[in-house]
Amino acid sequence: MVNAKMVAETKKAADPVALTQTIQKETQIANFKNVGQIRRRVDATVKGHKTAEALKPWYNYMCKRSAFHNAYLPTFNRQNVTLADTEGRGVERITEKGIVFISTCGVEMGSSSTNIGKMGRVPCMASIPSITQSALAPNFQHRLNEQAKHIAFFTAETLRRGAITVETSQESQDEWIRIIIRIGRLREGFLRECTPSYYDDEGREDMD
């Protein structure tokens, strides 16, 4: 992982503390520039001042998902569109007479009419290859190469064992989660300064 490699390089530096401080300072400057560019884009696109101010991000880049469709901001200029500002509280409840709330993320859990519900557990969801969720690297070709080798390995191993399905063991899942948490702690200071979101478990300071 990139974070782990950065830590390794920092430890080998003549002055690790100074190098770390330099990286943090340069990262923060880049954050200011990037998010400032987004705020200027909001000003240039959204006509209503109050709506534009509510849409502006006032947190570091990647505290939340900042990418959006090119038609996202212009949508708020339409007469039939109103920004519902929850003042950071998010959705607290859904009622039959409330506004229409469309949720398009995640998978439906526990339904008895689906295979997921019948098995009573989360699907494997082995999304390989993928350009987004299953891997992320600044070098696109490198990622494709690593994924191709991974696919070739477990496909060959499946055939060698005479199996017809592949499923990750619970032990492997648990170990991978431990690795993610260990590496993720490198971003704990960054996330602590973010506005609450699912990235930091709605503002929790620990990652346990």
From TrEMBL:
So which domain of life are we looking at? Eukaryota
Required co-factor(s) are: FAD
User: Which InterPro entries does the entry link to?
Assistant: FAD-binding_Monooxygenases (IPR050775), FAD/NAD-bd_sf (IPR036188)
The alphabetized UniProt keywords are: FAD, Flavoprotein, Monooxygenase, NADP, Oxidoreductase
Name a GO molecular-function annotation: monooxygenase activity
| Xref: PANTHER family | BLR3857 PROTEIN (PTHR43098:SF4), L-ORNITHINE N(5)-MONOOXYGENASE-RELATED (PTHR43098)
Q: Which family does it belong to?
A: Belongs to the FAD-binding monooxygenase family.
In its UniProt entry, what is this protein called?
Answer: Uncharacterized protein
